[in-house]
Amino acid sequence: MSDKHFPADGSPPKPPHKKGGHTPSPAAANAAAASFAALMANLHYLDAASVEQVRQAYRFADEAHLGQLRNSGEPYITHPIAVAAQCAAWKLDAQALMAALLHDAMEDCGVTKPELIERFGAPVAELVDGLTKLDKLQFNTREENQAESFRKMLLAMARDVRVILIKLADRTHNMRTMGDMPRSKWARIASETLDIYAPIAHRLGLNQTYRELQDLSFRHLRPWRYAILAKAVAKARNRRRDLVQKVQQEVEAAFAQTAISVRIAGREKTMYSIYQKMDDKHLTFAQVTDIYGFRVIVQNVTDCYTALGVLHQLYKPVPGKFKDHIAIAKLNGYQSLHTTLVGPSSVNVEFQMRTEAMHLVAESGVAAHWLYKNNETDSATAERLGTKWLQSLLDIQDETRDAAEFWDHVKVDLFPDAVYVFTPKSQIMAMPRGATVVDFAYAIHSNVGDRTVAAKINGEQVPLRTELRNGDIIEVITAPVSAPNPAWLGFVRTGRARSKIRHHLKSMAQTESESMGEKLLTQALRAEGLERLPETTVEDQPIWDKLLRFTGNRTRIELLTDISMGKRVASIVAKRLVALLTENGEKPDALLLTRERYTAHERLSQGAVVLDGSENTSVQFARCCRPIPGDAIVGYLGRGEGLVVHTDDCAVAKRLQYKDSERFIAVDWADEPVRSFETGVVVTVKNSKGVLAKAAAALSAAEVDITHVDMGQEGEQEATDMRFLVSVRDHAHLEVALRQLKRTPSVLRAVRAKPAA
After folding, report:
1. Where are the domains of the chain?
2. pLDDT digits over 92-106, tens only?
3. pLDDT at residue 387 above 60?
4. Distance of CA 174 to CAs 64, 186, 203, 405, Å?
5. What superfamily does domain 229-410 belong to in CATH?
6. What class does CATH assign to 3-224?
7. Catalytic-role residue among 63, 107, 135, 540
8. Which candidate, 528, 532, 556, 552, places its Cα nearest to that of 544?
9. Does residue 143 have an active-site annotation?
10. Which among 63, 108, 324, 475 is annotated as catalytic?
11. pLDDT tens string 696-726
12. 383 in active site
């Protein structure tokens, strides 16, 4: 909206048209103008440039909300002005006031974030965006056990405390004007305010706002009880007026005889706190004795303790009712001395002693930073203020008088150890900071974690190692055949996920080892002339029992696992098993015995262990020679290592064969392996620009995956060796890749890496 529409005092014009509802009356428009003029009058703590920025934000908001009305019939702009006025009372900076004026523009008027960035800068747009996101949170306060999680998430989602302050100002004005809303909404909004927003105000030390939100919620949530209690308080106020005046006069007279400069103010307990005390302790109204109290405001900490002595000489203290919140401040930074004294007519009266600085923190909490920094000259007091308020939530070590620098300290999550995320069904879950999608999946259920294959965060596909952030909506995608990946252990954060993954991998390794042991024992048994192992039936159980007594194993599964891990030699166990079966009447098959022994040296034995790559932990492919399908291979049963596969020309395998030949068994490749296998390739190249990219492109063209590259440390030479670790299907696939490399410019030679000598 251009400047010509505005009077000189900056008040808003009458809307030329309406967007919805009825056209506001002249009186309503004048009320909006008057309230904005009142707001401008309270911005004396800002410089002229900042005031002009606030004015521009008001003009933009007024145009955006033009024609929109509140339930009371007032122009909608009166609400943002009231929110900004509360923020101005806290002496918040210009950015916060601009965001307060614009806080409904994105949600209600279709204004975009880029538009706000262009007009008012990124910090203001971020504040408005943060407020808009918080508005979208749907609090189901019927779930009382979730209220604390919602409070924490609300705090954690607002990375800038100003977002929370503006939100609290917004909620406070909405509660003040809730009488204009339909009565059907009262209970939900009042409950939400009582469960979510009032505790946040208390946590931030905004005691004045905290008390007001509680009272307003109580008034609309329990209107009959509020009305009855209000009448009782009014009567008590009239009855005790003389008593309160007498106490104040006596206290003022006592302090007049000292050198202490004091300011004494009366304090009345709020309706809700009276109701809460009556409800919690099952008291009648007459039994609530601390409805009235006094605050004694002094100049420094020493005077607080001196004032305490003056009061204890004037009236007798009630035993057990003294609290020193100066020496040990409350978690939200609150500091005061509390004492309860027996006043005239034996009525208990509470007194609170505090300094002006403490009073500001007590009433305004986190907002006291702005209230206090402009007029406090005592650096010691300022430093104490900076380290005491909100000390459990904000780790601010050094006070600063620069607002931008201050926010560098404050813009951290108020709950640094947790993030709060949603399931697709809007259930909230607290996860430790740094937790990943896999942690979330196991937090839901171990079966979900075990079967996880993919995930979406806020509707977008993400890697499983993605860290969760506050407010994320996470959808986990599972598959029945999926199983945990050992690589997950490298990034999961929660103990639950880690233990579940390890348990599953251990169970899987046990099953695979058992299967491998069965293959090896069957192969050894065939070499002795018997076709198959005894069944696990009742009839064959005595044979297994005798065999287990011979090997020293407790179960058949343990025996087969030991064979696969090389702790038992299959041929020795097979010979003992043949003896037991012969005793039982079975005889070796001479034809099978002849065929097995005749072909064993050619490694064509039908009893050879067939490998297809699906063996996982039960079979290892030696890194010294890196065998791939198509290579001639041998199998070595290492002690405790399981089956290790080498190429038959591997020098390491030959040394082992010389020392430990009985541990070698026949192995062979399956016709169609189910996965790729790693092997090494050495590429000699001319040192030239982009040679690594060319070699990588050649391997990619051959459909070969590169898993590792080593360029060496040879420095400036004409030629250099690049060592690739590549993943190929078989020997033929490797040959295709080598031919592709040899045809590449700058490549002098390409060969498979030789086994270690």
Report:
1. 3-224, 229-410, 424-493, 511-669, 677-752
2. 888 889 999 988 888
3. no
4. 20, 11, 21, 32
5. Beta Polymerase, domain 2 (3.30.460.10)
6. mainly alpha
7. 107
8. 556
9. no
10. 108
11. 999 988 989 888 888 766 656 788 888 999 9
12. no
